[in-house]
Amino acid sequence: MKELAPVLTGPEAAELILESIPNPVIMINNDSTILYINKSMESFLKADRCELVGKPLVEALYKGLTLTDGYHNPVLETLITGKEFSNRPVEIKTIFNVTPRPMLISTFLIKDGEGRVAGACAFFTDNPGGKGTVPPFEPPSKRLETVYAFAEAIGARDGCTMGHSEKVAQYAKMIAERMGQDKETVEQAYLCGMVHDVGKIGIPESVLNKEGPLTGEEYELIMGHSRIGANILARISWLNDIVPIVEAHHERYNGNGYPMGLKGDQIPVLSRILAVADAFDAMTSDRSYRKAFSLEKAVGELKRNAGTQFDPEVVDVFIDLLKEYS
Q1: Of 1.10.3210.10, 1.10.510.10, 3.20.110.20, 2.60.120.1060, which CATH number belongs to 142-325?
Q2: How far apart (Å, rounded) are the C-alpha atoms in residues 163 and 99?
Q3: Are 247 and 259 contacting, i.e. CB atoms less than 8 angstroms apart?
Q4: What is the pLDDT of residues 201-210, one digit of tens each?
Q5: Which among 86, 192, 216, 296 is least buried, having the fewest CB atoms inside 10 angstroms?
Q6: Buried b (16+ CB within 10 A) or exposed e, 100-111
Q7: Pairing label, strands 88-94, 97-111
Q8: Is the CB of residue 162 less than 8 Å from the CB of residue 285?
Q9: Rounded-to-integer distance, Cα 325 and Cα 204, Å
Q10: What pLDDT score was predicted for residue 154?
């Protein structure tokens, strides 16, 4: 006769059930820190849950980036708004998976014995094609599929800048929106941010990840990445409109940039936006050759170089945006 497992009760039983569920599950406290991630969610993220539990959800899964057009994660939305979801179609993106994955999510508030909100929980289910009675999932456009693939390739090539392209894309989108650009241009800003560094695929890893200062020859190689990227994108017909933007994202407002030495309004407006977004994220991220700048120091550098390296209007708009989220 098969031996039965001992009867479990209380928290031990609850945890065993959650660990046995094949669906990804995540719980957060009412301060938005991650309380629990089950094995399925750990597998889905391909991340060590021991490194995530106890951290703020936005910091752990999105490196602290805050968007203006929505919440990072529906479980956070449930905690903040109190609105619970049942099989809501979503696209899940984190720093661990740049390419969106269609899922269905159900969320609910966690309450203590006195009815006070103590946190929120979410259950995820795969949603390939949007089956069932929920609205069908609309797959990303061919343009988006392509740029997500490029972002994955860049991240795999240059480990120091994993997630960099996505953050630059979000910053660029925020700036373009605040500057009053139309919807199509705002979308372009995001796409350009995602692929602005694709040319780094053609740069040797020994140069990309070098811990010390670059030699003159190595710096020449790095400077070539904007033109390499433009040449790669030019071979994809539906990305032709963003080629000149990517090629010019290292031009300087005073004409001392590369590869063409463009100046002022000669530089496409989205290239000027990318220049600020790119520099800010680079300054506020750890690199192989230095530690991340503080927010105050990075803002100071943007101000100091406004009018020379950067378009002063773009700098002013971005600094105003940062004030709203700091």
Answers
A1: 1.10.3210.10
A2: 11
A3: yes
A4: 888 877 877 7
A5: 216
A6: bebbbbbbebbe
A7: antiparallel
A8: no
A9: 37
A10: 67
Q: How far, in Å, CA of 113 to CA of 91, rounded? A: 34
Work out the number of other CB atoms within 10 angstroms of the CB of residue 285: 19
Tell me which of 33-37, 70-74, 170-174, 219-223 is least confident. Answer: 70-74
Tell me which amino acid residue 103 is.
Answer: M
pLDDT band of 143, cuts 50, 70, 90: low
C-alpha–C-alpha distance, residues 133 and 142, integer Å:
26
This prediction's pTM: 0.59
Domains of the chain, by residue range, sit at 21-126, 142-325
Among 110, 100, 99, 240, CA closest to 156:
99
CATH number of 21-126: 3.30.450.20
Tens digit of each residue's pLDDT (9 = 90 or more) over 86-134: 888 877 777 776 556 778 888 989 888 788 888 899 988 876 544 433 3
DSSP state of 72: S
